Amino acid sequence: QLQLVESGGGLVQAGGPLRLSCAVSGRRFSSYAMGWFRQAPGREREFVATINWNGRSTRYADSVKGRFTIARDNAKDMVYLQMNSLKSEDTAVYYCHTQALRNHYWGQGTQVTVSS
Questions:
Q1: Tens-place pLDDT, residues 3-30
Q2: Could you give the CA distance from residue 88 to residue 40 in angstroms, rounded to a whole number?
Q3: Torsional sign, CA 97, 34, 88, 109
Q4: Buried (b) or exposed (e) across 54-90, using 16+ Cβ within 10 A?
Q5: Where are the extended beta strands (E) located within 54-109?
Q6: Which of 29, 34, 101, 113, by CA, is between 20 and 30 Å from 14?
Q7: Which of 2, 71, 81 is nearest to 36 (CA)?
Q8: Rounded to whole angstroms, how far apart are CA atoms 78 and 21?
Q9: 84 φ, ψ (degrees, to nearest 5)
Q10: How does pLDDT run across 88-115, given as a tens digit for each residue?
Q11: What is the pLDDT of residue 81?
């Protein structure tokens, strides 16, 4: 079993930065790719970013490319999402995610609100 706990959300002004963290507990964290998703009110959950097991490969949604950076620290079982130049449309609940075999694991989410 894997447990994911997000933190770092909050209220930030447009143009500002925010860093989200995801603490992962369970076996073999370093074996799994990790990702961030988000869900805005009235909208479906959408992909934000993903990072492979050793951190050498990342992929981003077009809407955040160049502004967000995903990173991981396998020694600390942590995943991060550095968000810069935030826009009002980035307002959402952000979720940490991983998949092990056929099982999907999600955190409880952390709210990010960007004020314009």
A1: 999 999 999 999 999 999 999 998 777 8
A2: 11
A3: positive
A4: eeeebebeeebeeebbbebeeeeeebbbebeebeeeb
A5: 58-60, 68-73, 78-83, 92-100, 103-106
A6: 34
A7: 81
A8: 7
A9: -120, 160
A10: 999 999 999 999 888 999 999 999 999 9
A11: 98
* Both structure tokens of 108: 């409880």
Q: Which amino acid is at 102?
A: R
Residue 1: the pLDDT is 81
pLDDT tens string 44-99: 999 999 999 999 999 999 999 999 999 999 999 999 999 999 999 999 999 999 99
Nearest to 78 by CA among 29, 28, 27: 29
* CB 99, CB 32: distance < 8 Å: yes
Radius of gyration of the chain (CA): 13
Question: Which amino acid is residue 28, in one-letter code?
Answer: R
